[in-house]
Amino acid sequence: MDISALFAALPGNVAQGIIWGIMALGVFFTFRILDFADLTVDGSFATGGAVAAMLITGGYSVPVALIAATVSGVAAGIVTGLLHTKLGIPGILASILTQISLYSINLNIMKGMANVAINGNKYNLIVSLRYIPQAILISAIFAVVIIIAAYWYFGTEQGSAVRATGSNPNMSQAQGININAMKVLTLGISNGVVALAGGLIAQYQGFADINMGRGAIVIGLAAVIIGEVVGHAIFGKRMNFMIKMVCVVCGGVIYYIVIGIVLWLRMPTNNLKLFTAIIVAIFLAVPYLKGKANNSFRKAAKRGGSN
Hints:
By secondary structure, the chain is mostly helical. It is about 75% helix and about 0% strand.
């Protein structure tokens, strides 16, 4: 194993991690702010990639393709929201139904093809595996803009209503907040961000694939959990909403660096999903074990003081 090969691969891991960190921001909006288990992202991520790829190869500019990809994700999120709020389907089942239907929709978008190539020599892509420094810069700019926009929005009256809905829906409804509208709105925003990331990753890797969103929710949750654990370790109680979002993106970078190390160690790629699950489990367990250890120390201190 050549250590130089690991360092040579790190910039690519960082670029990919930032893009997936943007996707994780969408997961963060529903998972942490709305307290909604949304599995739509596995489908909407691929939808964003499919829409962007088809428009770019069809002669449209990259900005137009990314806007269309974002809109497609918003539509997918709204469908999940309406299934949940208007038809009374439990949230996780509503998102699964949308995710399943998006598989067929994505195939239709790509005209029945399992993947669509985007040649970096033929099209003016804004992020590409061939130009990693540029990919890192552009992806970071997207992440910063989304974080600033989200920080502003969730500080507005409507954004505060969304946060209240996630914290205490019964109390929010009693205060006159239309919690169903807030759920639909947030699911649309979340999946719009996810689909935007899908459009970026399709350009970065040079193709859109029907299965590119498979397991996206796991990676998104991994980035959220890793970011939160690292953020709390560094900032503690000073960790505000903006820092949380920055940490989520950093969580995506950390996750892909870890994956890069796993590949560098030549571990079987068939076990990547297993490694992902283990990584997520470890970071999920850290806060619990830390809290349990602190409680044990407190109890021991009380027993010692009473003696």
